[in-house]
Amino acid sequence: MKISSFLFVVVVLVIGAFTNAEAKCRRAQVCDDNGMNCRAQDICDSTLDLPSVEIDPLKPLPSTELKPLPSIGLPPLGTSKCEYKQVNGRWQNVCR
Questions:
Q1: How far apart are CA 26 and CA 30, in angstroms?
Q2: pTM to 2 decimals?
Q3: Is 89 left (phi over 0), alpha (psi -120 to 50) or beta?
């Protein structure tokens, strides 16, 4: 009985050691149309992610790409509105 409990604990620890779970936000420069009015903002994958504690990144050069068309899908759970903004010089769908 003790050996099976020990093996179970060892297996759980080994799996936990090799599993890399990131649940934090990253700090990025978010700009409106044409790369103007940039501000530092946390970009998160989930509403449960921890806020970032990093310093603000450098301001990127404006993108030469055209702004994508608005998305027609429903926003993810925990958000109410999504729109395309420039994040570190690239267009991304940012939800709030």
A1: 12
A2: 0.43
A3: left
